[in-house]
Design goal:
two-stranded parallel ribbon, 4 strands, globular
Length: 107
């Protein structure tokens, strides 16, 4: 909500039909919140989601493996795809938010 208040353009990549994110359009002025369909396994859609961005915040995560995404795919492969897209697009900063609270000294 605060990003909209300061005039930032916010791109929200999503999977599915978009009904779960429609309420986010109300968080900014007309055209300020842009929803972009994407799938992390489709590099072209990842590239499109980060193009023209100066900062990318990665919030992709899960707390359990699914039949579609293992931890390796969720945390390593997706991060690699995002970093590659950001490098191509010239993104200045990538912020990664983890949902597993991993530590360097964990076993």
């Amino acid at each position: 909500h605060n990003l909209g208040k300061i005039g930032s353009r916010v791109v929200t990549p999503y999977r599915g039909d978009g009904m779960n994110i429609r309420h986010l359009k109300m968080m900014g002025d007309l055209g300020q919140i842009a929803h972009v369909p994407f799938h992390i396994r489709d590099q072209a859609s990842v590239d499109k989601a980060v193009e023209k961005s100066s900062v990318v915040v990665n919030c992709i995560g899960n707390t359990f493996e699914t039949r579609n995404f293992t931890f390796q795919q969720t945390y390593l492969d997706t991060t690699k795809a995002l970093v590659e897209a950001c490098q191509k697009a010239g993104v200045d900063r990538i912020i990664n938010i983890s949902s597993v609270n991993a530590a360097l000294d964990s076993e």
